[in-house]
Design goal:
single chain, about 200 residues, alpha+beta, Glutaredoxin, two-stranded antiparallel sheet, 6 helices, 9 strands, about 20% strand, disordered N terminus
């Protein structure tokens, strides 16, 4: 009986430790600096780009996204609108594909190039190998947004309060945060919950 109890205790401990290892790190906190800012990623242009390369003196919008997630597809018009808004207002913008678990499928680099062209995007769209950047941010969903000013993180979370129906949006979180950034103000809403697919990390 003691042996069985000991075995069960060890089994539970091993499972708990594995769960801890496989869990993404804690999500980035408000006011935090851009993590892994020098980490180089392959952009759809073929160039090697870091978040330091993408940011401007005003700030940087990072969106964890992909080609395939149904929630991303529902948000495509908004992602295009806000990424263009960033570039028009001197704010850097980087869309990051961390779906390493689907890299040989529809989230391959070649498919990213096609998707970028089809969406007529103008910002950075880069491959996050082994989900390294997503791990540094503690990002878990697509789409998931992180907006930085020159000092640190000022907004994180969802694009707005209605991913399924843009016409029914009552709280445009990201738009409001971007407007605040342009005005050198702090957003009234700085944290919201991202709704979307899980980032497909390697198991």
């Amino acid at each position: 009986m003691k042996k069985i109890t000991l075995f069960l205790s060890l089994f539970v401990a091993v499972i708990a430790s594995l769960s801890f290892i496989n869990s993404p790190p804690e999500e980035l906190k408000i006011n935090a600096a851009i993590p892994q800012a020098d980490y180089k990623m392959k952009d759809v242009s073929g160039k090697s780009i870091s978040l330091n390369d993408a940011k401007t003196t005003k700030g940087l919008l990072v969106i964890f996204s992909c080609n395939t997630c149904p929630y991303v597809k529902l948000s495509e018009t908004r992602i295009k609108e806000y990424s263009d808004y960033c570039l028009a207002n001197g704010i850097g913008c980087a869309i990051i594909n961390s779906n390493e678990g689907q890299r040989s499928e529809e989230d391959s680099f070649d498919e990213m190039v096609k998707y970028f062209a089809a969406q007529q995007l103008k910002c950075t769209y880069a491959v996050d190998e082994k989900s390294q950047l997503a791990n540094a941010f503690g990002a878990t969903r697509t789409p998931q947004c992180f907006l930085f000013n020159a000092k640190g993180l000022i907004y994180k979370g969802a694009i707005d309060d209605n991913v399924k129906d843009p016409s029914a949006v009552k709280a445009p979180y990201l738009k409001d945060a971007l407007t605040s950034l342009v005005k050198n103000e702090t957003p009234k809403m700085q944290e919201t919950k991202s709704i979307g697919c899980t980032i497909k990390r390697l198991e």
